[in-house]
Write a structure and sequence with these properties.
Oligomer: single chain
Number of strands: 4
Largest sheet: 4 strands, antiparallel
Shape: rod-shaped
Radius of gyration: 31 Å
Length: 158
């Protein structure tokens, strides 16, 4: 620090004023470039991600409410294991089950790794129309707008 002070005092009075003026301009500029801009950019990006997440959450809630209101009467009793029926039905709907585990003849646990939320909800509505109730449902959103689904399905009335 003393060598820097000696160097500064070795300058002429005009050079000293110019160096102080340079510091008066450089310090705020560096603070703006190195602190303010990155922080405001990160905050703006966080607000955008938050807004997108809230909108996705609202769409999922609206779809769930629509699914609750669209209950249809059971057509004909179904036969066979729930896991196999769910797999076939998912295939017809364009979805791929990543896991299907039977929990007895009248219950099954299924999961889908990633898919479009509307297609998954339409598939679940179709299962309910066939007499398969959704006992537990978990949909986890992904950053790309898709969702992962885990559900426990059971034959209605048993």
């Amino acid at each position: 620090m003393s060598s820097l002070l000696l160097w500064y005092r070795g300058r002429s009075e005009r050079e000293q004023r110019l160096l102080l003026l340079m510091l008066a301009v450089a310090i705020p500029l560096l603070l703006w470039l190195l602190v303010y801009r990155p922080v405001t950019g990160a905050l703006d990006a966080a607000w955008d991600r938050h807004r997108d997440a809230v909108e996705r959450h609202g769409r999922v809630l609206a779809a769930v409410e629509a699914m609750k209101g669209a209950r249809q009467p059971v057509a004909a009793p179904i036969t066979g294991e729930i896991a196999a029926l769910a797999g076939e039905s998912a295939g017809r709907s364009g979805l791929t089950l990543s896991a299907a585990a039977a929990q007895g003849p009248d219950r099954a646990s299924v999961s889908i790794g990633a898919g479009e939320p509307r297609a998954m909800l339409a598939w679940l509505r179709g299962l309910e129309a066939q007499g398969i109730a959704v006992e537990d449902l978990r949909m986890t959103p992904a950053p790309d707008g898709s969702v992962a689904l885990t559900a426990v399905l059971a034959r209605r009335g048993r």
